[in-house]
Design brief:
Largest sheet: 7 strands, parallel
Number of strands: 15
CATH architecture of the largest domain: 3-Layer(aba) Sandwich
CATH topology of the largest domain: Rossmann fold
Structural class: alpha/beta
Strand order of the largest sheet: 3-2-1-6-7-8-9
Shape: globular
Distance between the termini: 12 Å
CATH superfamily of the largest domain: Glycogen Phosphorylase B
Radius of gyration: 21 Å
Order of helices and strands: EHEHEEEHEHEHEHEEHEHEHEHEHEHHH
Number of domains: 2
CATH class of the largest domain: Alpha Beta
């Protein structure tokens, strides 16, 4: 494994370099790693690095509807995306992941690596079946591996037993946070670069003058804590002004959850999957983002997206979020406690000058620490070090 002591914050002079970005999940259904990799490709292109995204894809049709009942994007992937097979839903780590497990995946990957002639391959979640291990096995060149997860995934123990020897093929280890580094180091020890998930900064953002909305953005996975927020909602809705916008979670699953919890839908808008631009609009219009996750979060990309939109955050006081949310940018509350969550939300939306000031501080933090040009420069410099041997 590589043992670089540090990657600088300035991009090196790489010249013409082509990078294959391997993602073990489906482009059709998004998610943290997928969103990160897509934005990474755009940011690297801005500094002159050519990329291809090697990823799963589930085109529209009855077969996809059977395998994936939840919503997703089913348009044609862009030309820089190379689909490598269908995915299936695999539960683990308090979430439902769309892992690429198609029989045709490995042959397609072999042909792609031979055809594209990459200078370097960047594998996200190197042990996640089956694209991560397959890429490490088939690619015999400069390699960077990024670890995103926290907690224990269902596939990690068998993958560690079967594929751990492949980790020696990674020249440089990256983790997106200290929490992700701690999790990865337990089964893949080595020297890690901690390079955060990047965020794109929308223009024309004003932290003041927001609608009386709060936003929950995430899938309907157990660890995301949506039931905690719904239990808190009747107290938050008492004055009749505040609205909750639920983005990303499957509408039918949310309605069933509300019925089970006996929470009326008064003031709740269930939007389901929305395009990336619409999510930015929702965050930029809201008074705050609520992230009530219960644990096993390594970073919290939706939090930095809210920061980029000058939107403060009320989030669970868990390891992955504690690295992001400061007293100047939001409020942390004990996970799983509806009353504490409601109290924090009420306090933040009830003091508009303080809320807007937190929004301004959040935007400044996103621009100074998480903006994609900064993160892309770090990655470019790391690639230069790996290519230099």
């Amino acid at each position: 494994m590589g043992s670089w002591a540090c990657c600088s914050h300035a991009a090196g002079s790489l010249g013409a370099v082509k990078v294959g970005i391997v993602v073990p999940y489906s482009w059709s259904f998004g998610g943290g790693v997928v969103d990160h990799a897509e934005a990474q490709a755009r940011a690297l292109a801005a500094v002159g690095i050519e990329t291809r995204l090697l990823i799963g894809n589930d085109p529209p049709g009855s077969f996809s509807r059977v395998l994936h009942p939840r919503q997703g994007r089913h348009g044609e992937p862009p030309s820089t995306v190379i689909p490598l097979g269908r995915s299936v839903v695999v539960p683990g780590n308090g979430a439902l992941s769309n892992l690429v497990l198609s029989p045709s995946t490995v042959p397609r990957l072999r042909r792609t690596l031979a055809r594209e002639q990459f200078d370097l391959v960047h594998v996200h979640e190197p042990l996640a079946p089956m694209l991560g291990p397959a890429a490490l096995a088939l690619w015999d060149g400069p390699t960077v591996g990024t670890f995103h997860a926290a907690g224990n995934s269902a596939w990690r123990i068998p993958a560690q037993v079967l594929f751990k020897f492949l980790l020696d093929r990674i020249d440089l280890l990256v983790a997106v946070s200290e929490e992700a580094r701690r999790t990865a180091a337990a089964f893949a020890p080595g020297d890690y670069e901690v390079i955060p998930n990047g965020v794109e900064l929308p223009e024309g953002i004003d932290p003041a003058g927001r609608s009386d909305h709060v936003v929950f953005a995430g899938r309907h996975d157990p660890r995301k804590g949506l039931p905690v927020l719904l239990r808190a909602w009747p107290r938050l809705r008492r004055d009749g002004h505040l609205r909750l916008r639920v983005v990303g979670a499957d509408p039918l699953a949310v309605r069933l959850l509300m019925t089970r919890l006996r929470v009326p839908d008064d003031g709740i808008d269930v939007l389901g999957f929305v395009p990336d631009e619409e999510l930015t609009e929702e965050l930029a219009a809201a008074k705050l983002l609520v992230a009530p996750s219960l644990g096993n979060e390594s970073f919290g990309m939706v939090i930095t997206r809210a920061f980029a939109s000058a939107t403060p955050v009320v989030a669970s006081d868990i390891d992955g979020y504690r690295e992001l949310v400061t007293p100047e940018t939001g409020v942390l509350v004990p996970p799983g406690e509806p009353e504490a969550l409601a109290e924090a939300i009420t306090g933040l939306v009830g003091d508009e000058p303080a809320r807007a000031e937190r929004g301004r501080a959040a935007r400044e933090l996103a621009a100074s620490r998480y903006a994609w040009p900064l993160v892309a420069a770090q990655l470019a410099d790391c690639y230069e070090r790996v290519l230099a041997g």
